[in-house]
Every structure is written in structure tokens, then in C-alpha cells.
């Protein structure tokens, strides 16, 4: 079933075009990874899909969509006052404790319900972010660099959770700079650099063709650094 129809969307700031004639359709049950270099317009596209930004041209049609947004770590809750994990999730459940507990169970975080949110690890905080989205009955999850600042072990657990949610029918759209992980995880890749360069299955994506050499060199260095750390 068609959930999002992104039709010829362009976004410009002053004289600069950030997105140029972006068109794609999102269907229920897809797991989409959006990749591209810095400044490619990935977060801008998410803001348009979320309804936070009106495109300069084009349109987005939504059908039976309840979107849950999972930001980068640290952007969910400022920590200005003590608040429990359960209270954070209840914000997404319009105050319903029962829905919040159910959502925490879905991400295997129910035993942390009465801990302070700020006491959790980065990976645990992102699980709570997903629970908050699920508590609002989201059928589409949008994640913006969700594992930034999260340790490697927690990243693995987090991606396992995403696989489980996808297997249960949740549509997932994830922006990530972890190209290798995205290609192993998702069912569809969109490579964006102001316009769509590639939209298709991960097994046919050629990184050296669609991504700048400097981008690939940087992530290759990161990969080797992570590998050396575990030798």
C-alpha cells in the first residue's frame, strides 16, 4: 500500500537549491536507507516528509500514515529536569500509561521504566525514542542518524531491534552515514545528493559510482579504526 508519494519536491534557501526535483514513493513494509554526503539534503528531505518544512516546489501526499520520528541521540530530551523513561514514552502516548508500558515492552525496555532517562546508555535512549514513537501508534518510523554517538555493541542491538520491527510490518526510513551497515540492513537504498542518484535494491548499489571519493575514503578510515580497536 502506498503511504507516501513524494512528487517533484524541490527546496531552495535564497539562491541555493538544497533539494532538486526529488520524486519517490514509499510503500508499507519497506525498510529504506537514505545515504549521501554531508550537505546532500537528507535531513531537509526528512523535514519535508515530517511536515516541518514546506517545499519550494512539488508536493507530498500521505495515506493512512502516522509518523514517529527518532532524532539523533541527545535531541529527544534535554534533561533540564529529572524525568523517568516511562514519563518520556507517555509523552508520545498522550499520557496513557498502558500504551507507554506496551511500547516499552516492544523495544525490550520495560524493566527500565522507572529509571531516569538521562541514566541510560546511548543505545538504550534510542530504544526509548522508538518506544515513544510506537506509543503514538506510528506505522512509519523516520530515523535521522540514530546511532551517532552510540557504541558499537549498542549499535548492533539497535539494528537488531529495527529488523524485528520491520519484520512485524513497520515501515522504516533511516538516514545514516554508515553505508556498509545500511546496505546489509535495508531492503531499498536511496542515494541522495540534492537529487536522487540511485533508488533501488542494496545489492545493486555501487558506492564508488554514486558517492564522492573523499566520502568513501573517510568511512573506509573509520572502518579500519574500529577494526583496530577490537584487535
Features of this protein?
alpha/beta; globular; disordered C terminus; six-stranded mixed sheet; 8 helices; 231 residues
Number of helices: 8
Q: Roughly how many Å is the radius of gyration?
A: 18 Å
Low-confidence stretches: 218-231
How many individual β-strands?
9
Q: How is the biggest beta sheet arranged?
A: 6 strands, mixed
Instruction: Spell the H/E element sequence.
Output: EEEHEEHHHEHEHEEHH
Category from helices, strands and their pairing:
alpha/beta
Characterize the overall form: globular
User: Quaternary state, please?
Assistant: single chain
Largest sheet strand order: 5-6-7-3-8-9
Helix content: 25-40%
Beta-strand percent range? 25-35%
Would you kindly provide a written description of the structure presented here, covering whatever features stand out?
There is one protein chain. Helix content is 36%, strand content 26%. The protein contains 8 helices and 9 strands. It has helices spanning 42-49, 85-92, 97-106, 122-135, 152-167, 179-185, 207-210, 213-229, and strands spanning 2-13, 16-27, 31-35, 57-62, 67-70, 140-144, 171-175, 188-193, 195-200. Helix 2 (85-92) runs parallel beside helix 4 and helix 3 (97-106) crosses helix 4 (122-135). The chain is globular. The N and C termini lie far apart (46 Å). 36% of the residues are buried. Residues 218-231 have low confidence and may be disordered.
Amino acid at each position: 500500500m502506498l503511504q507516501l508519494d513524494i512528487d517533484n519536491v524541490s527546496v531552495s534557501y535564497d539562491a541555493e537549491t538544497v533539494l532538486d526535483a526529488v520524486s519517490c514513493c514509499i510503500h508499507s513494509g519497506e525498510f529504506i536507507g537514505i545515504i549521501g554526503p554531508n550537505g546532500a539534503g537528507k535531513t531537509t528531505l526528512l523535514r519535508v516528509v515530517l511536515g516541518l518544512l514546506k517545499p519550494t516546489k512539488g508536493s507530498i501526499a500521505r495515506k493512512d500514515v502516522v509518523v514517529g520520528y527518532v532524532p539523533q541521540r541527545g535531541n529527544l530530551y534535554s534533561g533540564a529536569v529529572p524525568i523517568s523513561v516511562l514519563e518520556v514514552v507517555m509523552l508520545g502516548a498522550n499520557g496513557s500509561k498502558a500504551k507507554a508500558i506496551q511500547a516499552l515492552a516492544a523495544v525490550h525496555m520495560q524493566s527500565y521504566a522507572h529509571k531516569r532517562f538521562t541514566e541510560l546508555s546511548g543505545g538504550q535512549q534510542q530504544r526509548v525514542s522508538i518506544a515513544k514513537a510506537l506509543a503514538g501508534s506510528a506505522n512509519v518510523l523516520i530515523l535521522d542518524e540514530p546511532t551517532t554517538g552510540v557504541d558499537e555493541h549498542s549499535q548492533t542491538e539497535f539494528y537488531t531491534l529495527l529488523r524485528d520491527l520491520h519484520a512485524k510490518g513497520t515501515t522504516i526510513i533511516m538516514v545514516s552515514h554508515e553505508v556498509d551497515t545500511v546496505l546489509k540492513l535495508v531492503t531499498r537504498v536511496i542515494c541522495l545528493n540534492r537529487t536522487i542518484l540511485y533508488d533501488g535494491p542494496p545489492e545493486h548499489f555501487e558506492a564508488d559510482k554514486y558517492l564522492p571519493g573523499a566520502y568513501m575514503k573517510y568511512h573506509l578510515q573509520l572502518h579500519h579504526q574500529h577494526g583496530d580497536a577490537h584487535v
